[in-house]
Amino acid sequence: MTRYIQRDGAALAYQIVGEGPHPIAWFFEDMMHPDLMWTDPHFHYNFERCARFARSLFFQRRGFGLSDPVEHVPTLEEQADDVVAVLDDAEVDRATLVGAASTCGPLPW
Question: Given strand 96-99, what is the order of strands in its sheet?
Fold first, then answer.
């Protein structure tokens, strides 16, 4: 199920899958659309498998995928704040953070 939170006047989309005790926040690259990834059998299998042991949060940066378009490229600080906002909205205090390529930068903030 896709959820939305407001970030600076635009909706930021994220999905939650699984109920396991170990939250994992997956910050996807711009070409990794959360809904379309479910149609790929390899991604689907990995998501389902991960959901058995972890509560997984899937999201992209503002302006991509299911989120509203934005007028500027978010700074690293804004992206880091978005990660925290998604975790807060999902009521996750601590999580393993997973980024790919350009999404790795905001994660250690």
Answer: 2-7, 10-17, 56-60, 24-28, 96-99
Per-residue pLDDT at 32 exceeds 90: no
Q: Tell me how far apart the alpha carbons of residues 80 and 107 are, in angstroms, rounded to a whole number.
A: 6
What confidence score (pLDDT) does residue 48 get?
87
For residues 52 and 32, give the distance between their C-alpha atoms in angstroms, rounded to a whole number. 22
What are the tens digits of pLDDT across the range 43-88? 889 888 888 889 999 888 888 888 888 888 888 888 889 999 999 9
- How far is it, in rounded angstroms, from Cα 95 to Cα 50? 14
Q: Which has the closest alpha carbon to 61: 48, 47, 46, 72?
A: 72
